[in-house]
Input
Amino acid sequence: MGQVSMVAATMPVETVRRSRGPISRRSRRLNMFRVVVLVLAAVFFLTPILAMLEFSTRGTGIGAPRTLTYWRQIFDYPDLVAAIQVSLELAVITSVAGLLLLVPTMIWVRLRLPKLKRVIEFLCLLPLTVPAIVLVVGLAPVYAWVTYFFGDSTLTLAFAYVVLVLPYTYRVLDAGLSAIDVQTLSEAARSLGAGWGTVMLRIVAPNMRSALLNSALLSVALVLGEFTIAQLLNFVNLQVAINMLGRANAGVSIAVAVASLFFAFILLVALSFVGRRRSGSVQVEE
Amino acid sequence: MPESTGSAVDDRPSRGGRRLPLVWLGAVPFLAYVTIFLVLPTIIVIFGAFSGPHGPTLSNVKALSQDYIVTAFVNSIELSAMSAIIGAVVGAVVAYAVVTGKPDSTLRRIVTSASGVLAQFGGVTLAFAFIATIGGAGLITVWLGDHGIDIGSNVWLYELPGLTLVYSYFQIPLMVLVFLPALDGIRPQWREATETLGGTAWDYWRHVAAPLLWPSFIGSTLLLFANAFSAYATVEALVSQGGIVLPLQIYNAFTSETVLGQENLAKALAGGMVVVVAIVMSLYVLLQRRATRWAR
Output
């Protein structure tokens, strides 16, 4: 919705640029600068990914032709396939659980418990101050109890992962909530007879759809890349499996690594398109 | 969402006496969860740092002054500072290149999504990517080797210079992510206003953009520092032995806790890390508060 006002705001600039000399020269210089910067960045960020692709399609021996052997071998490692599956499950569980925990709390605090806002913010941002490698040292005794109550499934990692994604989820949701006037929306809804459940589910949540989507995506990306907590608590998730395999068969582990990177990237790009289309349709409805 | 179902009735003034506890009930699930999985582990680490097998002790903390631990601390700070500065400068330039384009362009969407993935996808993948690029049999190493150039990366890739380069790979995207909103806050109208008043591009940057952006910039740099300081997976997958930086020392102490009887050294090391990160992050929050003064 802010995009509309941005477009409107830049409109006059475009027309001015076309009509006046010095400004169009400036915009040409700016475009040059943009192209150079973005091309250099693309080279820096794409080279290692291309190198991984190249490495994972090498044949054995000097001068051997390109081959997809490493990629095919992925499925010869059942542990690896299991790890891929468990990481995907963890990603889904964590992003949903994180939202279920945080969204109602944040809306509630904003509307009814403003006193608590600082506390919630502090707690949510605390994981930034307590790095995963530190958290896991303290989590080890807690996980003795988790194992006691929930068994030793790798999926129990979701408990820790929800904490890991808190800062990111909080920031995105806070931005989403700040962008809409929660107070007015809820007062309007409540004066028309809506209960709190209706306010949250049918008034506030649909208005911050893209924030919800963003935070879920961040959680998925974070969980798919998580290594520290899993390794130190002796669970095997995707990254731990890749790391272990790296010592035995570098080709296959690099193939999986690049596949997981592509997967996350495609997911994020695809869903950012979905988010945009939805917010566009909301504008039309309004 | 049970906490969201408190009905409209609770809010009526006539029930004033019951209102407070019911209102607080809404925050209970969150607070309980965070207490168990975040606050409690933190307390365990901090108390553990000061306790031994026979009650409270300072011996864990004293053990931190050993040479190899001090070296790891210094290495960590050096690596984090270098990669934060490189990441902040390059990331800010990239963010500026993106933000000066059309607000809803495909380019911007791709850059934001890519940054989101790359900033989080540190760790094992990243270590492997750089091994495949400039490791002994890496793409660039081999290609340059064919042309008679030896970059010698087999040595420096696994030490601080190599780690700095590898860390930049996730620091730059993180900077793009955190700095884009700050740049978005700079309205094109302000530039037009400067020009209308006869200001040059330099005047604009010196008196308008820079004063608005510097708190975000310094704040983001601090965030990057903390990010690198606490990164573990990348260095573990790349170096794995020797404990070159603090996180690896924590891992060593953590895994040998039961074996060597150095029960709480890991907690003391972890506590030391928390202290550094806490200081940096407090400064970040202060700066961020200053930066958002203009956001409205």
In short: Chain A has two domains: 2-56, 73-285. The radius of gyration of chain A is 24 Å.
